[in-house]
Amino acid sequence: MGVALTRSAQWTAAGHGTATLEVTPLNEAILKEIIVFVESFIYMYPREAKFVFVEPLGWKTNLEPSAFGSGYVVSENTVKSEEVDKNGEPLLFLSVPQIKVRNFGQLSRLLYIAKDRKLKEAQACLEANRDPVVKILGSDYSTTKREDSSTFNGLDKMTKGDDPEQEIKTNVAMLIQHLDMHLLNYSLKHIALEIRLNPSAIKNDIDLLKRYSGKGEQTVLESIEYTSDYEFSNGCRAPPWRQIYGEMCYVLVKPHDVETLCITCSTEGVFLNGGKTDDEREINYERKGKIYKDLITILREKSATFSKNMAKQENTFNEEQQKEKFQPDEAPKKEEATTKADSEKTTLQKNQINFGRNPIGKRLEPSLNWKNTVDLKEYEWGMKGLES
Fold first, then answer.
1. Where is the composition biased (Basic and acidic residues) (predicted)?
2. Of 304, 307, 188, which Cα lies nearest the Cα of 247?
């Protein structure tokens, strides 16, 4: 909802007006996932649904006052929710065509009221609130200040204690965080339909080069390391918003005779990028120089020592490289040893999204199995997760 919106969703260039969400399958999929999350919020998390946003989410709506019924005070051009905050202010206020909503409970009700227009309402809301997390939780929890992380800046400051309001705010932050991680992983499914990533081949080459690297005079490199320890479910280490461009991972390579090289591995090939930024929190993704077919080729050209030492061990290296290509075929044999019950359990776990039990920072597996209807029995685990 934060990083997923700003980095995975596809936006038009702002130009002279406000940037809008492009009409693409990926954007529609992201919007539908957010709608399911918000619609079910009032039933899954009734306490958290009452949490009042720091600032209201406001946008231009297509809904008419006549669409609102029980629970609202309706006039010709305005609507006020009977539900109010501690100061007596309504948590939903519509003055045609502008609407302001101040908690998830009212957002949930609004989507039900919108019916077949809920997709347009969700899009209008998100276009008008490019970083909704800031308005919901406050500026300390911005997701746009740090592009290399999907973790809210202020989440680590939150702790559950004796303050009930702070505890509820913490729960809301965690739920949004889990949604964001789900959306990032979910977007990879759609990216994979358009771009054929092959991270396994790159991974094999990097693993082999590591074996031949070190301090010895005969080693081909001093070191080669990924810039990120996080590996997504599709095997890539590049952020989802870079995977859209076919990028799979970034490696820091230290040859014996030249400065450290920062290399991008992509579906087009491999190339030098701009290296680590000054604060070393992210990569300067801009390509520097031409594209090479693989890591070996670019390193031969950039390092004379690599080229010389590689020539001495080329036969052995090539033999191991060929063996590595057949390693993935051995995986199914190991899986055959699992029992039918274990197999079914694993499949079930992969097909569920558990907002309540997955801790922050733990890798979430992508799933396409969210339902479009609300089933209260299926949501009971959510509340249990928050109470644990």
1. 320-347
2. 188
Alpha-carbon span 387 to 47, nearest angstrom: 11
Q: Which amino acid is at 128?
A: A
Neighbours of 43 (CB within 10 A): 16
What CATH number is attached to the domain comprising 265?
A: 3.30.2280
Examine the domain organization and report whether 264 and 172 are in the same domain: no
Per-position DSSP letters for 331-388, written without gaps between them = HHHHHTTS-HHHHHHHHHHHT---TTTSPTTS---------SS--TGGGHHHHHHHH-
Q: Beta strands 223-226 and 98-101: pairing type?
A: unpaired
Residue 324 scores a pLDDT above 50: yes
Instruction: Pull the structure tokens for residue 343.
Output: 């197999």
Beta bridge partners of 58: 100
Local structure of residue 4 (DSSP, 8 states): I
Q: Are 176 and 164 in contact (CB under 8 A)?
A: no
User: Half-sphere exposure (CA, 13 Å, Cβ side) for 203?
Assistant: 16
Task: Tell me which DSSP letter residue 5 carries.
Answer: I
Q: Over the stretch 185-243, which tens digit does the pLDDT of each residue have? A: 777 776 666 656 688 889 999 999 999 899 888 899 999 999 999 898 888 999 888 88
| Site of tokens 């080069």 | 209
Domain of 264, in residue numbers:
199-325
Among 152, 170, 192, give the residue marking a domain's end: 192
Structure tokens at 162: 């004796």
Phi/psi-derived region of residue 72, left when phi > 0, alpha when psi is between -120 and 50, beta in every other case: beta
Q: Going by DSSP bridges, is the β-strand pair 247-254/261-266 parallel, antiparallel, or unpaired?
A: antiparallel
Does 253 share its domain with 182? no
